[in-house]
């Protein structure tokens, strides 16, 4: 099940030079309990993607779903049911199947196909996802947070949070650690007494390798690693289901980075939270992620199990990106660094945006932008791999 899912998500900005396509048609999911790593060169849209998913910036188009929950299996022949779902209206048999499971669809309910094997039913504020799984069709409820306003979004904020790159600017120098944790706990009414609040604060600080005595410290009395641990503790004290970690260790020493990764892993288990870990540091992402998404010029070009993607990267950009990772051995040369320039996100090329740098470029690549296709147990956006017929 997914805690977050995006479908064809776009975030464009207007600049003097034209439209900057920072996030361009991204469809991905974060599965409950996992860490999804997002890697790519600077400026590829990783941070904008994280912020758009959290609605810190308004998406241009596409969909953002949050907190998928299973409802029931459609008791219909899967092939026939798929045919029914192809229509915009609701087939009476489909309506009956929902009713049998105590979910009544109104006359306003509309179906739309979201990918070859899944459909969305929008019905007066309720959203259902119907997904083909093995030999059955399962129905899920999900929150469509794409267009809800800030007031409504505030109710979900504590469930979806972010840790920013720079802990120095994320903390108020005039506030103690206690103040930083107190504020969200009080605003979101997370505790009913001062005792409970203190217990909660200390528990979260301990999980992040800090002690009760740190509560009275000001940011200038903490090391860089301790500051970032306070930022993570502040995000965790709201008991989120989903955290975006945006380059959370890039401002820290290498020795501190691995400690923070271990603490993040511990916190994930303890608080049952799912992460999107954004970084340009491939080795860090490899160490913490269950699955990995590789971004290039606003698009996710490959997504799959981290071990599979590292063992055998399929997209030519992923292959080049991994080859360009500096080796710890000074005598070992970087095999084949990425050459050429990333095209401008203003007015990106019509076909594959990696075509100018790709050693495997074919005729079709400059004409047609490749969409996702299943290949070797993952999704890859590249014409080298054949699309399965739906
Ligand atoms: Fe290279 Fe073509 Fe694949 Fe793009 S679609 S990565 S240009 S082979």
Topology of helices and strands:
Blueprint (H helix, E strand, L loop, with lengths): L1 E14 L2 E14 L3 E5 L6 H8 L7 E13 L4 H8 L6 H9 L9 E6 L2 E6 L2 E8 L2 E9 L5 H8 L2 E4 L3 H4 L6 H11 L6 H14 L16 H13 L5 E5 L7 H18 L2 E5 L3 H7 L2 E6 L2 E7 H6 L4 H8 L49 E3 L2 E3 L10
Parallel strand pairs: 3-11, 3-12, 9-10, 10-11
Antiparallel strand pairs: 1-2, 1-4, 4-8, 5-6, 6-7, 7-8, 12-13, 13-15, 14-15
Bound molecules: iron/sulfur cluster.
Question: How would you sum up this structure, described in words?
Answer:
The chain is of the alpha+beta class. Among the domains are: 68-144, no CATH class; 293-380, no CATH class. Helices cover 29% and strands 28% of the residues. The protein is built from twelve helices and 15 strands. The chain has helices at residues 46-53, 78-85, 92-100, 150-157, 167-170, 177-187, 194-207, 224-236, 254-271, 282-288, 306-311, 316-323; strands spanning 2-15, 18-31, 35-39, 61-73, 110-115, 118-123, 126-133, 136-144, 160-163, 242-246, 274-278, 291-296, 299-305, 373-375, 378-380. The protein has an eight-stranded mixed sheet with strand order 9-10-11-3-12-13-15-14, with helices on both faces. Strands 2-1-4-8-7-6-5 form a seven-stranded antiparallel sheet. A hairpin with a 2-residue loop joins strand 14 and strand 15. The structure holds iron/sulfur cluster.
